[in-house]
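Something for you to look into today, if you have time. Could you write out one complete protein record for me, on any chain you like? Leave the record below and I will have a look.
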Amino acid sequence: MSLFLNQEDGYYSLTPAGMAAFAALIVILVLLTAFLSKKENADGGKPKAFSARQLVFSSAALALGFITSYIKVIDMPWGGSVTLCSMLFVVLIGYWYGPKIGLTAGFAYGILQFLQGGGDFILSPMQVCMDYILAFASLGLSGFFSRKKNGLVKGYLLAILFRGLFHTIGGYLYWMEYMPESFPKSFAFLYPFAYNYAYLLVEALISIIMVTLPPVKNAMIRVKSMAAE
């Protein structure tokens, strides 16, 4: 951890190596998105703007995701809550339309989440970026599997892994002093990882079980077909 982070009085800051790793991660995400967008338009013609159907379906999914983010079904012991599959609705947008629209929708969802509660407690612009902008935009990475077999499940897993990664980095940088007393002190270095991935993976497990049930899976296929028409 010392290679990427400095620690002083309970606070963390990025080392030059950490800053380079973070910059590389952002560049990789941008390049992947640009590459896929170029590949999608390789058949000629200009890139198309969002259609009315895409806007309607994306807006409906974002609204459902925002509403269900208020419905907490499990409160985790070290913090964080499992919601009523709120991430799934945002992930669906990338699954329907690919990473370009998916990342845009995830970015918009991050703004909504920030307005929902994050605006009351800001440690720094970078903290907001890590906890809201980048973390929730990552849900749009599901779009890289929009045309793959079992693309929804694969895209969902990729999306939550990256969302958890950004939350975890933010946790090391800004939230270590808020570690609860119940968390083992000898494993304090694992706290941001455990905090974030605990609730994310539980919600992922519930969502993946649900979408792999035959009736739900068939319904998802029909909805994707409707979204694309």
Q: What stands out?
A: The first helix runs from residue 16 to 40. The chain has a mean pLDDT of 84. Residues 149 and 155 are 10 Å apart (CA to CA).
